[in-house]
Specification:
- The chain is of the alpha/beta class and about 280 residues long.
- Helices cover about 35% and strands about 15% of the residues.
- It has 10 helices and 7 strands.
- It has a 7-stranded mixed beta sheet, sandwiched between helices.
- Helix 5 links the parallel strand 1 and strand 2.
- Helix 1 crosses helix 3 and helix 1 crosses helix 4.
- The radius of gyration is 18 Å and the shape is globular.
- The N and C termini lie far apart (about 45 Å).
Length: about 280
């Protein structure tokens, strides 16, 4: 029996439950055949709480649709990682944190790629147990370490990662759960071991998403689980630029991040006091 997951780690089970639900949809925009096993018995209960808050029985929806958002995010980063892996000279992909992600097992990857998954030991042990011996489709290497530890970079390098070569990083479902200072520190540390030309992708919320009254039902669910949303920014490009990355930010529903699934209007960036989610992608200078 593996160690129990903490509050933030349990959100990985929510993501797996969302991916399992998406896979069952006739209009799905991706398939994750491993999501059902990965979410276990807890994931569907977490998803039920999110659905109850998002789609109240006695009133109209005012919160962003978590199922549609997660579907778009998953497909967007699926496409991003596969495009990066086809780039000449790109032979390293790092998921940090890895959570219950199964891209190494469900997508096809080019030969010569090393695919690293960084996460806490309990998460990686839980995932290995739930997958039950399913073989990855690439050279898959796990790095069992906490991203707040003082030397996780050494563990990654010991697993074969070469900081002198280009790499692609995905920080998915992480940055809004950690304080601003920790966000800066993690990005600084990623930048320090990313060669020029390396790629990075992440998702972020804006500041208003943490404070708007209409967001409270969703925020209260996560806070009740012990993993409140702690960080958002209205200037994601500036955040990454200060740390050596030139990035673009796209919102769900905008061209390239819609897939026919985003149900809400996308206000222009200059409009204040609206909730936003950003998909960040760019390169190390």
């Amino acid at each position: 029996m593996t160690a129990p997951l903490d509050a933030v780690e349990r959100t990985a089970l929510l993501t797996a439950a969302l991916r399992a639900a998406e896979t069952r949809r006739p209009d799905r925009i991706y398939q994750d055949p491993h999501a059902d096993a990965l979410c276990g018995d807890i994931g569907p209960d977490l998803l039920a709480e999110i659905r109850s808050a998002t789609f109240p029985a006695d009133s109209a929806r005012t919160l962003p649709s978590t199922p549609d958002y997660n579907a778009i995010r998953t497909r967007y980063f699926d496409d991003y990682l596969q495009e990066a892996a086809r780039e000449p000279g790109m032979h390293q992909i790092v998921l940090a944190p890895a959570g219950m992600d199964s891209r190494a097992y469900r997508l096809d990857w080019p030969e010569g790629l090393c695919y690293y998954e960084v996460d806490r030991p309990a998460v990686l042990a839980h995932k290995a147990e739930r997958l039950g011996g399913v073989e990855p489709r690439t050279d898959h290497r796990t790095v069992a370490v906490d991203l707040t530890s003082p030397d996780w970079e050494n563990d990654l390098i010991a697993a074969g990662y070469d900081p002198s070569l280009p790499s692609t990083w995905l920080l998915e479902g992480l940055l809004y759960y950690i304080p601003e200072q920790d966000t800066h520190r993690i990005l600084e540390r990623v930048a320090a071991i990313s060669a020029p030309g390396s790629r990075i992708a992440a998702d972020l919320v804006n500041s208003a998403a943490l404070t708007l009254p209409q967001m409270r039902p969703l925020l209260d669910v996560f806070a009740g689980w012990g993993c409140p949303w702690l960080f958002g920014t209205d200037e994601p490009e500036a955040l990454f630029d200060a740390l050596g990355f030139s990035v673009e930010a796209v919102q769900p529903g905008e061209p390239g991040a819609d897939f026919g699934r985003w149900p809400d209007p996308v206000p222009p960036r200059h409009v204040a006091n609206v909730r936003r989610v950003f998909f960040i992608h760019g390169r190390r200078r």
